[in-house]
Design a protein that fits this description.
This protein has helices at residues 16-25, 42-50, 68-83, 107-111, 142-145, 220-230, 240-245, 259-283, 443-453, 459-467, 471-484, and strands spanning 3-9, 30-35, 55-59, 89-94, 97-101, 121-128, 148-149, 162-166, 188-189, 210-214, 250-251, 301-304, 310-315, 322-323, 329-330, 335-336, 338-341, 348-352, 373-377, 383-387, 392-395, 407-410, 419-424, 429-432. The protein starts with a strand and ends with a helix. The protein has 2 domains: 3-252, Spore Coat Polysaccharide Biosynthesis Protein SpsA, Chain A (Alpha-Beta Complex), CATH 3.90.550; 258-488, Trefoil (Acidic Fibroblast Growth Factor, subunit A) (Trefoil), CATH 2.80.10. The chain has 11 helices and 24 strands. The radius of gyration is 25 Å and the shape is elongated. The protein is an alpha+beta fold. Helix 1 (16-25) crosses helix 8 (259-283), helix 2 (42-50) packs across helix 8 (259-283) and helix 8 (259-283) crosses helix 11 (471-484). Strand 20 and strand 21 form a beta hairpin. Strands 1, 2, 3, 4, 5, 6, 8, 9 and 10 form a 9-stranded mixed β-sheet that branches. The protein has an 8-stranded antiparallel β-sheet with strand order 22-21-20-19-18-17-13-23, with no helix packed on it. It has a 3-stranded antiparallel β-sheet with strand order 15-14-16, with no helix packed on it. It comes from Acetobacter aceti NBRC 14818. It is a single-pass membrane protein.
Length: 488
């Protein structure tokens, strides 16, 4: 059993990473993504994601077809043609719609149920979520942010609409709307396996086993952005749409069981996206440039710790820094993490664990600080740990706090940003970099190293070099990347 999904999207830079990550986290095998000429960086995120996940991506042709709905129809018809003979089920969703399967570990187990053996299509009810009273949009996972929903929606007035998953061989390409597709109605079933009793493109709301979480409003900034994109098309310059759907009756935390897996996928996509930005910012202006791709390079090389200084880390409260169950740095009990000193006359260190696998840090743009951090003396017997790419300090909340995850969230050094390092005898392997940095380097030096060593550099080597770029130049470099890919 293989399940694919088609997405038609435009200008969803805040949420596209999370949307892609969510659907792979719940077990979708493949995505067909049709970008309606986004100009906010959405297309670039999709390109980064397809480097590491199973995605086919396309851009619509606005010059040839001016009608939005016809472009949408053409995109979904293209997905149906491509999915035939490859995928058992194909779903159709928008960028604010997230499939959720209740009481099943993944979508494959849900669609493999015996009751769907003779189904040609499955209509899955919308569940409309409100704004959680949020005003500003951000890049966090939508499902984590907007948990409040309408617990007693009417079947009409938009709440009873559905989105469908169909067998590609059984759906006609005669498209009328994105909700009810053209399959034999005797084989069009609801979430429980019963023949759908249609009321136009709506049906009785049912969330028992599956639902499409529809984040129509999200934050107020999201809503304003939606109106700007679609005013004089299918929406008006009014808050009526917001007032109608922004219902925040109760919290729905059940879908959060997939959040950790989704956030892990987001982390990988953001890291690939960051490297793509660096490629265009640093390498593209030169002839015969070579593409930097995580999939083409070794992440870590390791060496025995014989000649390397290794340290345990405690926060100011005396708590060791460990890896929690989610694989993130925290003061919770877990596998111990260490810092090792990098080669050269510098203040650079690297976090690592015994397995030398990648470590995840919260608020770490592109995942780069997991490779290299700067350690600064605070003058009172402690040190601070700084992200050399962002100039944020690592904060470790004390053990009495609810959230014990460490994150690069502080702009200045207070108590929670102070640590003690204790040198230890360590008999194991540590991350190895072939690069030895004794002084800050310029952007030109960085590009020179990159171009001359790109075939042999590990991702770790690359991050060490990037961390060494002098303060004035690193801000120039990041500014350049933000112009290329917004919200980097």
């Amino acid at each position: 059993m293989k399940v694919a999904c088609a997405l038609f999207v435009k200008n969803e830079i805040h949420d596209i990473t999370g949307w892609i990550a969510w659907h792979f986290a719940i077990g979708i095998d493949h995505l067909y993504i049709f970008d309606d000429h986004s100009d906010d960086g959405t297309w670039e995120v999709i390109q980064a994601a397809k480097q590491i996940y199973s995605i086919d991506s396309y851009r619509t042709n606005i010059k040839e077809e001016r009608d939005f709905y016809i472009r949408q129809e053409q995109s979904f018809s293209s997905a149906v043609k491509q999915a035939k003979g490859i995928y058992d089920w194909l779903g159709f969703l928008d960028g604010d719609e997230y499939l959720y399967i209740n009481n099943f570990p993944n979508v494959v187990d849900y669609f493999s149920q015996k009751k769907f053996e003779k189904a040609y299509g499955i209509a899955i009810s919308w569940c409309v979520y409100g704004s959680n009273d949020k005003v500003i949009a951000n890049n966090k996972l939508t499902v984590d942010q907007f948990t409040k929903y309408n617990i007693n929606p009417p079947d009409a007035d938009g709440f009873g609409l559905v989105k469908s998953f169909v067998r590609p061989e059984k759906v006609s390409l005669d498209y009328s709307n994105p909700h009810k597709l053209n399959v034999n109605e005797n084989h069009y079933l609801d979430e429980n396996g019963n023949v759908v009793e249609w009321r136009g493109a709506t049906k009785k709301v049912n969330w028992e086993h599956a639902k499409v979480m529809h984040f129509i409003c999200r934050s107020m900034e999201h809503y304003v952005s939606r109106i700007k994109r679609r005013v004089n098309s299918d929406l008006s310059d009014s808050i009526g749409y917001w007032d109608h759907f922004n219902v925040n009756d109760a919290d729905d935390f059940a879908p959060l069981s997939f959040s950790e897996s989704a956030r892990s996928i987001m982390y990988k996509i953001n890291r690939a996206r960051f490297f793509n930005a660096l490629k265009y910012a640093c390498v593209f202006p030169y002839k015969n440039y070579k593409v930097i791709s995580l999939s083409d390079h070794i992440v870590y090389r390791t060496e025995h710790a014989k000649d390397v200084d290794v340290f345990e880390i405690r926060n100011i409260n005396g708590d060791f820094l460990n890896l929690n169950q989610s694989g993130r740095i925290s003061s919770e009990p877990g596998e111990r993490i260490y810092l090792c000193k990098l080669k050269g006359n510098n203040n650079f260190y690297s976090f690592f664990q015994k397995s030398c696998e990648s470590i995840i840090l919260s608020n770490d743009t592109g995942g780069l600080a997991s490779f290299c951090v700067a350690v600064e003396d605070t003058g009172d017997g402690h040190v601070a740990i700084r992200n050399p790419y962002e100039y944020n300090y690592l904060t470790s909340p004390p053990s009495h706090c609810d959230n014990l995850e460490a994150s690069f969230s502080a702009k200045k050094i207070l108590d929670w940003e102070k640590y003690t390092l204790k040198k230890i005898d360590y008999n194991g392997k540590v991350p190895y970099s072939s690069v030895s940095i004794n002084n800050e380097i310029s952007i030109d030096d960085f590009i020179h190293i990159l171009r001359n060593n790109i075939d042999t550099m590990s991702v770790y080597d690359f991050c060490v070099c990037l961390a060494s770029v002098m303060d004035t130049d690193i801000f120039t470099l990041k500014s350049c990347m933000r112009n290329l890919i917004p919200y980097t």
